[in-house]
Design goal:
alpha+beta; Serine Threonine Protein Phosphatase 5, Tetratricopeptide repeat; Jelly Rolls; 3 domains; 9-stranded antiparallel sheet; 4-stranded antiparallel sheet; 19 strands; globular; binds 2-oxoglutaric acid; binds fe (ii) ion
Amino acid sequence: VREDAFSALTSVARALAPERRLLGLLRRYLRGEEARLRDLTRFYDKVLSLHEDSTAPVVNPLLAFTLIKRLQSDWKNVVHSLEASENIRALKDGYEKVEQDLPAFEDLEGAARALMRLQDVYMLNVKGLARGVFQRVTGSAVTDLYSPRRLFSLTADDCFQVGKVAYDMGDYYHAIPWLEEAASLFRGSYGEWKTEDEASLEDALDHLAFAYFQAGNISCALSLSREFLLYSPDNKRMARNVLKYERLLAESPHQAAAEAVIQRPNVPHLQTRDTYEELCQTLGSQPIHYQIPSLYCSYETNSSPYLLLQPIRKEVIHLRPFVVLYHNFVSDSEAQKIRELAEPWLQRSVVASGERQLQVEYRISKSAWLKDTVDPILGTLDHRIAALTGLDVQSPHAEYLQVVNYGIGGHYEPHFDHATSPSSPLYRMKSGNRVATFMIYLSSVEAGGATAFIYANFSMPVVKNAALFWWNLHRNGEGDDDTLHAGCPVLVGDKWVANKWIHEYGQEFRRPCSSRPED
Ligand SMILES: O=C(O)CCC(=O)C(=O)O
Ligand SMILES: [Fe+2]
């Protein structure tokens, strides 16, 4: 199976290599063509100067001879030169060799959907995104979620392609603002043809008109179709559309005023979704400690000799469910080492669905499982986790370390880490459910990517090298619904985390059970 290029940032970065090869090819092509045109210009200038010379050009037998020779031979060689086609052939051959390493259309779709996801979750406006700014717009309030050091803006064709992905899915909610932006940028540069562009102003108007029609906005569909006809007056289909829209508006004139509100697709209105998005938009929010005295900071020693020598700062983040953050759980070099060990093994992340494992839109990342035998560092981490939590993390009482790298707008929508159905593949280890999660942040991010606890109503910003720990199960073994959590879409950055999932069996004396459901 082909590896996708959008679901992990390491894969995106890998796409830089083929583009560098293409740049090399194009540079060679340009050099060749420049040399060819320079030589043609030389020939042109030479012949032109002979014609401009006031002395009669044919009295000199040498000149007379070269005139005859030029017309008999030189011009033919110029006109039939193979150089241009050889240059383009070399470019095309080189491209064909690189082609298998290029992202596929599914990657373009994935990347476009990522932009729309960021637009939704962070309430970014498309006009701003196209200009390269990451601004949250709510009513009249504008907040910069991220300020890039250098503005990078999108072209008309870039916006068209995003809109087209939405359009082809019948998602007019997203198609309209992106196609609007495309049309507006195409209008601004009308007549400037760009070789790399797939679309034109006419294409944008055509799609936008139909999107508005589908969304129930006939008057917009009509005016865009009329604008289209200004550029392509002979288009029969568009002329018919104009007549149809005019008739529809005449039949029900109230349509003209109706600003149909289009619903965001695929998301039935959910309270959890609203909370999730609000928690993501804060880019990480926590209760303020001095206001809640039971939340405290301390150095965890857990009476372990290891931790006495190297104490780790523990911050209690939340009590029910119990969530703690261990600062500097790993060092920069350990985090880097783990990322490097995982990199070659990364594969599209899956989720459990009944008994099966599926790739889904609500979890966009790649992940790898690292066995303890892969490198001694994994045993070191296990010891550290065991010392901190007091739990048995030896196989089969815990899973291998799962290293995750998020992709463009990568995320993991609200979910439980523990199994909620007895048929879950989680139980294949025969060591019970996932009693606790120990999650290490192996990178920082520029913006976004917080870990949001929906019902507990807080979000944890990515704190590089820190580890987040929480219990997924009550002491009676039942799942704690309050642990519903999510990885917010990464707005800017390369987010890596590692999960150590600890199972029920083996912890009987380490976390005594209780029949009180609230424990
Ligand atoms: O990346 C995050 O912040 C959360 C990840 C997560 O919940 C998971 O991998 O199960
Ligand atoms: Fe999770």
